[in-house]
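idk why but the lab printer keeps eating my pages so im just putting this in chat instead. protein + adenosine-5'-diphosphate:
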Amino acid sequence: MTEKYIMVIDQGTTSTRAILFDNNSQIIGINQKEIEQHFPESGAVEHNPIEIWSSVLSVMTGVLADKNIDPLAVAALGITNQRETTVIWDKKTGQPIHNAIVWQSRQTESYCAQLRADGHDALIREKTGLLIDPYFSATKVQYILDHVEGARTRAENGELLFGTIDTWLMWKLTEGEVHATDMTNASRTLMYNIHTLEWDKELLEIYNIPASLLPEVSTSSEVYGHIAPQLFFGRALPIAGVAGDQQAALFGQLCLNKGDVKNTYGTGNFMLMNTGETPVKSNNGLITTIACNIDGQVTYALEGSIFVTGSAVQWLRDGLRFFSDAHMSEEYAMKMTDNNGVYVVPAFTGLGAPYWDSEARGAMFGLTRGTDKAHIIRATLEAIAYQTRDVLDAMVKDASTDIRSLKVDGGASDNAFLMQFQADILDVSVKRAAINETTALGAAYLAGLAVGYWSSKDALLSNVKVAKTYNSRMNKEIRDELYQGWKKAVKATQAF
Ligand SMILES: Nc1ncnc2c1ncn2[C@@H]1O[C@H](COP(=O)(O)OP(=O)(O)O)[C@@H](O)[C@H]1O
Ligand SMILES: O=P(O)(O)OC[C@H](O)CO
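predcted complex ->
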């Protein structure tokens, strides 16, 4: 094989990465660039789409340069992305008409309140598997069309295009040839019907969003188009795999069978369970989403999305200046034998699954004169584990199945204190992947399978290994007492 590698762009909330994988799923090179976060008003989070685009060009060339790799040695490109984040741009000039509104942003709460007041909750839930929340793309589109002068008329005249980050990047990489997304990303927009597998006309009318804005929806593993050669050393590299980052991680962890569960610890936490070919409706605050579409088969997932986990550690680092590197949180937490009664509820942008409370804000409980900063650090890490327990309990109820083990990945899964506490508080074994970049790996698999770089999903099974398994060491009484303390803290936070 002359083409030795698959390249992946992982465009995440805090950074853009280009990663090269070889045929044994090993990482050959990584190049990364941070993305600036813009906070234009309270609760609003935005990115500059041009900065995102230029970071992609920079990391793609950077990863080749770092390892002195010939562009001809790359077989295909996979793209995985922060989901829901919304870009609208001019079809002719390619200029975004507004900053990208990021998934975390709460600036469309009033649009959501209106949709709820108009009684659309059940219909939206039934068709999209989601619930009305600023998290999803539709109200972000409404906001941009309403806040940029002339945008609505231009949209109605077919002059504008909408995309999540995958769509924006494919459009830029193909110099406007491809305006497409895959089903996993479409299923996060609040506009896509996850049963009929098409943009839903009735919902578009409710939102007053013109259909001409929307991209074509494809599978997650096929050749969507080719990079314009002048952007990539004269090579028309096929773009062959696309998936939202959490679904890509599910695939990268090879959670290919019904009942398989993974939990990613990044800016937020996202637990997904593969529910097979049937969408499972949640009665416990989870959402239903498309897990993948490959080999002509759509699979679904139940998802619990927690908005603030790793970003609470960033807050300890940058806001409170408790340490200079996220890794140091582990050392501080381990210095203490317990949380000394301290609970931190990091509801900085409201609470996601299973509470869905946009109005909630962060709180701290149980402070005494004896509280040390290490207790606060420990309580913040514990909060990540408690929130995960909230979601896992909901998942067990919704899927009517027991979960005995959890595959984990993402930046904060490096934290040994957190992983042990997670196993303790769930009473489930926690298995950390040997390759922590499972999100990118999933997109590599999707792209590699489409171009025959890997022959089949079965060929991948021997490639994925567990680095470490954490088993519970906590007795039931302590586990129950700690978790009850957390539930009390959440209740008090919501009542505030
Ligand atoms: N050792 C650690 N302990 C706790 N949190 C960590 C650790 N390392 C990274 N993090 C947190 O994980 C997040 C980064 O993870 P990553 O998977 O790169 O996120 P994303 O894909 O959301 O940008 C940051 O929010 C950071 O604070
Ligand atoms: O960029 P991440 O890894 O924080 O993921 C964000 C999610 O896709 C939001 O739904």
